[in-house]
Backbone:
């Protein structure tokens, strides 16, 4: 069987064309893969930069919160110290009879017993009936108010802490107290 050279040439030419087409497709596909890889790398770099920026912002927020909490803690510690000093001074004045606590009595509640009215030129009660408290009872009353003051200061510290964490504003229980 004799093969004409034209047929062989056509087959060789067809194979060469197929190889060339294959090579062109390979180049195109390689170029597409390279472009896709470049885009993927750029996307990853952008995501990394965004994550680093977010992390830095979070660290800045945390540092600011820690600073606010430290300042709040210092303020409330000073309030507590001042309240304790004031209570100690009040207890000392009561113990040395420098100060006496008294209560205002209802004029009809004395049960017919005469209770001397403490008349003072600067009094606001206009000679109302007052009775002095026993110093021991006065000390107990001062101790109770001291505990209450410390409790209110601690409550305000907790409210300030929660406000700092949540970024909101919580109403104070008694804003007129220290």
Residues:
């Amino acid at each position: 069987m004799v093969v004409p050279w034209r047929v062989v040439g056509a087959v060789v030419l067809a194979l060469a064309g197929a190889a060339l087409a294959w090579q062109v497709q390979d180049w195109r596909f390689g170029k597409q893969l390279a472009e896709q890889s470049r885009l993927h790398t750029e996307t990853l770099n952008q995501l990394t930069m965004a994550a680093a920026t977010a992390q830095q912002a979070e660290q800045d927020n945390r540092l600011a919160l820690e600073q606010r909490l430290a300042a709040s803690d210092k303020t409330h510690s000073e309030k507590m110290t001042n309240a304790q000093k004031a209570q100690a001074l009040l207890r000392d004045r009561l113990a040395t009879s420098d100060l006496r606590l008294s209560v205002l009595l209802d004029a009809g509640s004395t049960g017919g017993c005469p209770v001397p009215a403490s008349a003072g030129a600067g009094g606001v009660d206009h000679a109302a009936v007052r009775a002095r408290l026993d110093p021991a009872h006065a000390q107990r009353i001062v101790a109770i108010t001291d505990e209450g003051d410390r409790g209110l200061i601690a409550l305000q510290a907790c409210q300030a802490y929660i406000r700092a964490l949540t970024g909101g504003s919580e109403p104070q229980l008694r804003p007129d107290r220290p």
Remarks:
- DSSP finds two helices and two strands in the chain.
- The mean pLDDT is 81.
- The chain has one domain: 5-110+125-166.
